[in-house]
Write a structure and sequence with these properties.
The protein is mostly helical. It contains 3 helices and no strands.
């Protein structure tokens, strides 16, 4: 899951001309640290749903990598 998440975030970031990141950490903020917009988060959500059938925003906003990863533990 973490590798998929890293690859997907890098794919989204590359479309914006942002640099590739090498690793993710649970405390990384999706907007502040990774520079994702609301549109980017929607794209990320769709890709995760398609791959894993999990809606990361089902219970409200998700702000960090750790919060995304916790959805897979449920």
């Amino acid at each position: 899951m973490e590798e998929f998440l890293l690859d997907t975030i890098n794919e989204i970031r590359s479309l914006k001309g942002a640099e590739k990141i090498d690793r993710l950490s649970p405390e990384m903020n999706l907007r502040d640290d990774l520079g994702l917009s609301s549109f980017d988060l929607a794209e990320l959500t769709v890709k995760i749903e398609d791959e894993y059938d999990i809606d990361i925003f089902e219970d409200g906003l998700v702000n960090t990598i750790g919060e995304i990863l916790s959805k897979f533990a449920e």
